[in-house]
Write a structure and sequence with these properties.
The chain contains 17 helices and eleven strands. It is an alpha/beta fold. The structure holds oxidized coenzyme A.
């Protein structure tokens, strides 16, 4: 048995944010029925294709364990089928542009009328306010949610992250909202509206930067590289690779950095790690020197300290540094490339990186479920072909007979 066995999701999501959410719910055991426009389907099926005429990795990696039904929800016959699906489902999830579902004739009021127990969950770019009608993609959310303004180096432009905190981050938030609403429904018997704005999701993940915005009013941010020699303006600045927590940290070069763009390691130099670190890099003298032996003394010269650390790390590979420093209680992490992550045996063993077979593209790698439940293990199944389960769902979920299915096809609704 899987955790969400018996929960049926009407999945109107596309691109990345919504599909991330429904894929997680599918991995937890929900029956996710992905509704796609006949003929074209989710636009990502055709985006960034690496093999002609085959569903892209963009699509396959975001739509595992789902069933695909084609349905034109703008035609009357399609609306009838959609209405019947709303009756049969526990959750409706969508991330269309603002107002798209209302324009099809399915407002929240109408959806509740059809099924008062349904949970109606949406991702939008913005919450209510001046921008609520705008369409939003990942990097727009990273910019409008505080991510870009606080990422990068002080002397460079705002920078977006490779981590998809706007799309996948908001999808994660939405999944939690849905499961919470399902839990409340157990007691109330009622469904509810769940909404996540991508701007809010990014800002939530940038929480410590709003913390720093308020600390600025009381003096400089001493853990930022701008301290003590640079200047602070009136907003949280970009902190380069400084740690967001109370302990200093930085990325330093390792052996081979001249030819390998990822020959770097992140090293945290908190007080508890300093003894082991200083001795390891050949600076036992720092332990007796009042210029170095307290966190306060080191704070104004972290750049010099990291130069000295780097002089040592450049003589070792990033993996050797990790092996040497961890037993000495120095938290550190090598900068792992996507190539290294895809080949890492421990990630394969835990199912975090999984090889999946696909009838048209053959085997490919994907990121499996990062959330491990002991009683509900995840079994990653390939993404569906467009409309692969249309007949099956119309028959088994809605009880349509062969003639009714043929008529739906004839009308262009499916
Ligand atoms: N049958 C009939 N019509 C369908 C349909 C179906 N099965 N599925 C979608 N459509 C229609 C929609 O109703 C909409 O029609 P109208 O414009 O007439 O209302 C139309 O297809 C296009 O939908 P859209 O506006 O959502 O798509 P888009 O490509 O123009 O915009 C996006 C994409 C992502 C910018 C927009 O959906 C959006 O802002 N979503 C919310 C934020 C979000 O999730 N962004 C993350 C994107 S991932 O980076």
């Amino acid at each position: 048995m899987k955790a969400l066995d018996g929960v049926r999701i009407l999945d109107m999501t596309h691109v990345q944010s919504g599909p991330t959410c429904t894929q997680l719910l599918a991995w937890f055991g929900a029956d996710v029925i992905k509704v796609e426009r006949p003929g074209s389907g989710d636009a990502t099926r055709g985006q960034l294709r690496d093999i002609p005429d085959v569903d892209s990795l963009y699509f396959t990696m975001l739509n595992h364990n789902k069933r695909s039904v084609t349905l034109n929800t703008k035609l009357d016959a399609g609306k009838d089928i959609f209405t019947r699906l709303i009756v049969e489902c526990d959750v409706l999830v969508e991330n269309f542009a603002p107002g798209a579902l209302d324009r099809m004739g399915f407002s929240w009021e109408r959806i509740q009328e059809i099924n008062p127990r349904i949970i109606y969950a949406s991702v939008k770019g913005f919450g209510p306010g001046p921008y609520e009608d705008f369409k939003v993609y990942e990097n727009v959310a990273q910019c409008t949610g505080g991510g870009a303004s606080t990422t990068g180096f002080d002397d460079g432009p705002p920078t977006v992250s490779g981590a998809q905190i706007g799309d996948s981050g908001t999808g994660l938030h939405l999944a939690l909202g849905i499961v919470t609403a399902l839990f409340q429904r157990e007691r109330s018997g009622r469904g509810q509206r769940v909404e996540c704005a991508m701007q809010d999701g990014v800002l939530n993940l940038c929480r410590v930067k709003l913390r720093d915005q308020q600390r600025l009013a009381h003096g400089p941010l001493t853990e930022y590289p701008q301290y003590p020699n640079g200047t602070f303006g009136d907003a949280t600045p970009r902190a380069g690779n400084a740690s967001g927590g109370g302990q200093p940290g930085w990325i330093v070069k390792c052996k081979g950095w001249e030819n390998d763009l990822d020959a770097y390691i992140y090293i945290i130099t908190q007080a508890a790690a300093f003894d082991g670190l200083a001795r390891t890099i050949g600076h036992a003298d720092w332990l007796e020197d009042p210029e170095w032996n307290t966190p306060e003394a080191r704070l104004p010269k972290l750049d010099r300290m990291y130069d000295e650390i780097e002089a040592w790390t450049k003589t070792k590979t990033k993996f050797e540094v990790m092996e040497i420093l961890n037993p000495r209680n120095v938290p550190c992490g090598p900068v792992l490339s996507m190539k290294e992550l895809s080949e890492e045996p421990s990630l394969r063993a835990t199912g975090t990186v999984v090889q999946v077979d696909h009838p048209e593209r053959g085997p490919y790698l994907t990121v499996g479920n990062p959330i491990k439940l002991s009683d509900s293990p995840t079994d990653v199944r390939r993404s569906p072909l467009l409309g692969e389960h249309t007949d099956e769902v119309l028959q088994a979920v809605l009880g349509l007979d062969a003639a009714a299915i043929a008529a739906a096809k004839e009308s262009g609704a499916v």
